[in-house]
Each structure stands twice: as C-alpha cells, then as structure tokens.
UniProtKB/TrEMBL annotation:
<dbReference type="InterPro" id="IPR015422">
    <property type="entry name" value="PyrdxlP-dep_Trfase_small"/>
</dbReference>
<dbReference type="InterPro" id="IPR015424">
    <property type="entry name" value="PyrdxlP-dep_Trfase"/>
</dbReference>
<comment type="similarity">
    <text>Belongs to the class-I pyridoxal-phosphate-dependent aminotransferase family.</text>
</comment>
<dbReference type="GO" id="GO:0008483">
    <property type="term" value="F:transaminase activity"/>
</dbReference>
<dbReference type="GO" id="GO:0030170">
    <property type="term" value="F:pyridoxal phosphate binding"/>
</dbReference>
<dbReference type="InterPro" id="IPR004838">
    <property type="entry name" value="NHTrfase_class1_PyrdxlP-BS"/>
</dbReference>
<dbReference type="InterPro" id="IPR004839">
    <property type="entry name" value="Aminotransferase_I/II_large"/>
</dbReference>
<protein>
    <recommendedName>
        <fullName>Aminotransferase</fullName>
        <ecNumber>2.6.1.-</ecNumber>
    </recommendedName>
</protein>
<feature type="domain" description="Aminotransferase class I/classII large">
    <location>
        <begin position="69"/>
        <end position="379"/>
    </location>
</feature>
<keyword id="KW-0808">Transferase</keyword>
<dbReference type="Pfam" id="PF00155">
    <property type="entry name" value="Aminotran_1_2"/>
</dbReference>
<dbReference type="InterPro" id="IPR015421">
    <property type="entry name" value="PyrdxlP-dep_Trfase_major"/>
</dbReference>
<keyword id="KW-0032">Aminotransferase</keyword>
Length: 391
C-alpha cells in the first residue's frame, strides 16, 4: 500500500520472517502431540512466588497519585543506580538511568537519541533478530558483522573494516544471544582502543550499545565485564524479563556510562525523557516502577537452568552434535545435522519438538534451543534429537 510510510514497510519486512515463524511453527501439530517447545524464552512453569506477592502489593494504591502520569521515577532510578554501582563498580547516578519498557524500550531510546536517517549501526551476526527492524523504523542502516567463526568471539578487525563515516553505534550483546558467549575484558579492551581511534579518525564519536539483558544469567562461575567499564561512550540496556523469566512484564532501563565525557553524558541525560515522550510516553507502568527495589532481589533458579544446559549439551554432543557450550543466557546454539536448520526443525516438529532454526539469525546452518523449558520437557525431547542425529 503506497500510503504506508517507507520506514514502517521496511521495518515490517525485516521482522516478517520472525512473525511468520511464530504464527506457524506449531500450526500442524496438535497440542497433545507436543513434547517440548524450545523456541522462545517464555516460562513453562508458574512465576516466582515473590514476584507475584510484590506485584500484588504494588497494584494496591498507597496514595492518591499512585496511578498518575509517570516518567522515569526517582525511586526506581536511584535503586537501579545503586545496584549498578555495586554490580559493575562504576559511579552511576540516578540521572544516568531511564526506566524503559524492557530492553526493547531501552534499545529504542538509544537508537532514537543517537541515529539520524542514513546513519549506520553495526550489529553482531548471528544476533538478535529485532535490531534490524528497530533500525529500519528509524531510517537507519543495519550493518551486520560476523562474529569469529567457531568461537563467536567479537571480531574486532571485522568491526573496524565495517566502520564508515556514517557509523554511529556498535551493538555488543554480552552474554550473547544466541550463542551464550561472554566477552572477555581483554577483547572488550581491544574493541575500545579501536573505537577510540576510529572516532578520532572519522571526526565524531562512535557509541557502544551494550545489550545486557542476560548479564545475571551466567554459568560455571563466569565473571562479567560490561563494555561500560572499558569504553566511556557506552550505553547499557537491561531487562528484568530474563532474570525473572517474565518477559510479559515490560520493565527495564537504559543506563549511560558514568565514564562518558561529561558534555556528552549531560546531553544524553537531558534528552532521555523527551525522547521517550516522543515515542508514545514509553515509560513502564507505575506498579512495575514501584516494584524495582524488590524485583532486584529476585531471580530464577540459575542452578536448575545450568543443570538443563548440562543435560542437553551432554546428550547432544554424545550423539555427534557440534554445539557451543554457553557461558550465559538460556540458549544452546549448534550446527544442524546436514547443515540445513529448516529441514532439521521440520523433522523435530514431526516428533513434537520445536526449536528455532538459524534462518531467523541469518545462519541457516545452525539452530537455537531455549532452556527455559522444564526438565521434563528436556527429557521428553531427547529421543527426537537422537533420532534426528541418525542414532
């Protein structure tokens, strides 16, 4: 339809494969034949009891203005800044924080604040499939840069080669969806040195958007370094939907690194609220903001998640699957038998097991398993994986 904006049509084109997959991947399988849905990061058990109690309390009004208009409220911003100071060892202040509707809202705010039509944003390949649609909606260009083959580490040389005079943002997703790789301080330092030099060369700052919604979901005692501690021109996006396994509760934040040059930091602080207003009053609902102090204390069972990772990884590697053992997130990434993830996903679906084919990540040879399934679902899926491996 010619009356639709070009940006909306471009954004729709970018996300269409994901929507088509979501609408159809279980269409031909009766619910009673489903063994395990290992596609999206949705819960398959009842929510954390503490989460429910917290929300019930915050839904009860404590004052006449409890449900009045809210922007980023002072109390949750202070709570987030306090937590970030303790967790990342950086001197965040409440002014550095924007409360957002999940990481989606934080990423949207960062893109809107930093990008003009025609500007470029470097994203990882494979990587989250919503960056490109959000960039297209702003008239910006997605520049996907492959991660290092086999290890899925940041390829700093490849990122450098992709930088042009229109580059404004480099997205760093750590722990990385879909592979689960956590980037080392040394590799982030290499990236920081390169971006500092390239910013000077092209005459304007290149920012890092550190996409960290899985920051607290780590296995085997792995440590975590945020790019915000290494590269001053960094913004962090975060979502509580992962650590709480409640993605339908849209609460997160965008945080400005306190190491950022003061003039740039102040400029970003001054424009965060108006940017969110211009995007349709894009602030989290009042009860969710009131709840932040308690939500910070809650977590899904990381040990149970790690046990499911170990069970699935151990079984599949025993049957010859080539997998990346994740250091974080709740995903398992691997190579499809025969190198055709679409055919592999279809074969599993006939056995009532659903995975996400790598076609949605522009990696048609690979596949992703989501470990938010129950342990019973994991066990029920294993015969299908064994059969698909020809065992």
């Amino acid at each position: 339809m010619s009356f639709l904006s070009q940006r909306s049509r471009s954004a729709s084109d970018e996300i269409r494969p994901v929507f088509e997959f979501f609408a159809g991947y279980r269409a031909d399988v009766p619910d009673e034949n489903v063994r395990a849905d290992l596609t999206f990061g949705n819960p398959h058990e009842m929510p954390l009891p503490g989460l429910v109690a917290c929300l019930k309390d915050r839904a009860e009004p404590h004052s006449v203005d409890w449900f009045a208009y809210k922007t980023s409220e002072e109390e949750p911003r202070t709570a987030v800044a306090d937590t970030l100071r303790a967790e990342l060892g950086l001197p965040f202040t409440p002014e550095d924080i924007a409360m957002t509707a999940g990481a989606f809202g934080a990423i949207a705010a960062a893109f809107s604040m930093l990008l003009d039509p025609g500007d470029e944003c470097i994203t990882p390949l494979p990587g989250w499939f919503c960056y490109s649609t959000m960039l297209a909606a702003r008239g910006a260009r997605t520049v996907p840069v492959p991660l290092s083959e086999g290890t899925f580490e940041l390829d700093v040389a490849a990122i450098e080669a992709a930088i042009t005079a229109r580059t404004r943002i480099v997205v760093v997703n750590t722990p990385h969806n879909p592979t689960g790789v956590i980037y080392s301080r040394e590799r982030l330092s290499e990236l920081a040195d390169m971006l500092t030099a390239k910013s000077e060369e092209i005459g304007h700052p290149i920012f890092v958007l550190s996409d960290e919604p899985y920051r607290r979901i780590r296995f085997d005692g792995h440590s975590f370094t945020s790019p915000a501690a290494i590269y001053a021109r960094t913004l962090i996006d975060y979502s509580y939907g992962k650590i709480l396994l409640a993605p339908g509760l849209r609460i997160g934040y965008l945080a400005i690194s306190p190491l950022m040059p003061e003039d740039e930091r102040t400029a970003l602080q001054s424009i965060m609220t108006t940017t969110q207003v211009s995007e349709g009053w894009a602030f989290p609902d009042a009860p969710l903001q009131y709840a932040i102090g308690d939500l910070e204390k809650l977590s899904i069972d990381i040990g149970a998640l790690e046990a499911r990772r170990d069970r699935m990884h151990g079984a599949l590697t025993q049957w010859g699957y080539d997998l990346t053992k994740p250091a974080g997130t709740f995903y398992l990434w691997g190579r499809a038998p025969g190198g055709d993830s679409a055919a592999f996903a279809e074969a599993l679906a006939r056995d009532g097991v659903f995975i996400m084919p790598g076609t949605l990540f522009d990696r048609p040879s690979d596949f992703r398993i989501c470990l938010t399934a129950t342990s019973e679902m994991i066990e029920a899926s294993l015969p299908a994986f064994k059969a698909a491996a020809g065992i």
